[in-house]
Structures are given as structure tokens and as C-alpha cells.
Amino acid sequence: MNKYYFDNLFGFADIVKATETYKMACEYMAKTEVYDRTLTDARSPWDKTEAFIDISPRIRHFSRVYADNLRKYYKELCGGSWQPIQEEIIKHSKYSAQQWIDEYNRLIGKSEEEEGIVRMGKKNSI
């Protein structure tokens, strides 16, 4: 019995695939939100952590172009389909803007601990 068959038999491959898709969805949402926050100081009236980009058509354009470029990148990573990432975003649509960022940082922190990588922005303690 080969490893791939064993993994698929017990659903491990599906779990890993779902986890990676969730991580990409978190990364996409976090990066777009952080970028939007750099474009404007205005905040959404409903969620004080969410950037409010409807102030100017120019700001909306920059935000849309950045999001489209990220979407193309993640679409290539998912084998040419945006659907799995979109499903994860819809599944977690209750997340606030800050929750996406916090969740992405949590996932990145976990993977860095596993791999022994130092995050950018942190001082090396060598």
C-alpha cells in the first residue's frame, strides 16, 4: 500500500489540502486589508478595524488592482481555479477585517515555529 493511497484512504490528503486553501484565503484577505489600510485612514462605520475605501474612486481603483493581482497569483497556486479559496472566504464570512489578519498571523507563526523560520520584522536573537 503506497503512502498516497493510505493518505487518501483516511482523508489526510483532503485535510492538508483544505488547510492550505484556508491559509491562502487568510493570506489573501489579510494582505488586501493591510494594503487598504495603507491607502486610507478612514474606517468603516460598522467595523472600526476595517479600512473604508469608498471615499475616492482613485483609492478604490488602487485597492481593486491590488486585489486582482493577488487573486491571479493565488489562482495560479490553486491550479487555475479561484473557487476553493472563494469557498473558504464565504465559509468564514463572519470574520472581521482584523480577524483575518489575526488568523493569518496565527497560521504563519505556527508554520514558522515548525520550520524554525524567523518572521520579518522580528529581531534575530543570535
Q: Main traits of this protein?
A:
5 helices, mainly alpha, 126 residues, 0% strand, globular
List the helices and strands and how they pair.
Elements: H1 3-10, H2 12-39, H3 57-77, H4 83-91, H5 97-115
Explain what you see:
- With 126 residues, this protein is mainly α.
- The protein has a domain at 57-109.
- 67% of the residues lie in helices and 0% in strands.
- The chain has helices at residues 3-10, 12-39, 57-77, 83-91, 97-115.
- The protein is globular, with a radius of gyration of 17 Å.
- Residues 1-13 and 115-126 have low confidence and may be disordered.
Short description:
The chain is mainly α and 126 residues long. The protein has a domain at 57-109.
- What is the SS-derived class? mainly alpha
Give the proportion of residues in helices. Answer: 55-70%
Radius of gyration based on Cα positions: 17 Å
What kind of sheet is the major sheet? Answer: none
N- to C-terminal distance: 45 Å
How does the overall form come out from the CA principal axes?
Answer: globular
pLDDT below 50 for ≥5 consecutive residues: which ranges?
A: 1-13, 115-126
